[in-house]
Design a protein that fits this description.
Number of strands: 2
Structural class: mainly alpha
Largest sheet: 2 strands, antiparallel
Radius of gyration: 16 Å
Strand order of the largest sheet: 1-2
Strand content: under 5%
Distance between the termini: 37 Å
Number of domains: 1
Shape: globular
Length: 136
């Protein structure tokens, strides 16, 4: 799973690097997101970095208990960690997250955001499919 995590973070960072180099050439949307989801904590990088570190540290410290549940949960946690680390790198290196994908009315997002949402979807899938109470 470490290999998957590394590949996910690398894909996110390479995509952001490429977009920063070529956004104007291809007419891509490029946003410097200084907040988090739904515009919360705009321009409060230090607070966001601390929240990010605390969240990722909690997942890491609880990983054995959390990862022991199922393969789907393990995969979900690795996706969430990869997304958090990808956006965390941006905040530490640039002071903002590079967002460049836009679909209709959805706010601009990036690949790390996709990884977090894939992780959440996998958790929901697990809980809705595998953890359903048995009917008798």
């Amino acid at each position: 799973m470490i290999a998957l995590f590394s590949i996910l973070v690398l894909l996110d960072q390479v995509a952001k690097w490429w977009v920063l180099q070529h956004a104007n050439s291809f007419g891509l949307v490029l946003a410097q997101n200084t907040g988090i989801a739904f515009g919360l904590f705009q321009d409060q990088t230090a607070v966001i970095v601390l929240i990010n570190i605390a969240f990722l540290a909690a997942i890491w410290l609880l990983r054995e208990k959390l990862f022991a549940q199922s393969r789907v949960q393990t995969l979900a946690l690795w996706f969430i960690l990869a997304g958090g680390v990808g956006n965390g790198f941006d905040r530490l290196a640039r002071g903002y997250v590079v967002d460049f994908l836009q679909l209709g009315p959805i706010p601009t997002f990036n690949i790390a955001d996709i990884w977090v949402n894939v992780g959440i979807a996998l958790f929901l899938f697990h809980f809705l499919i595998y953890d359903r109470p048995q009917r008798t």
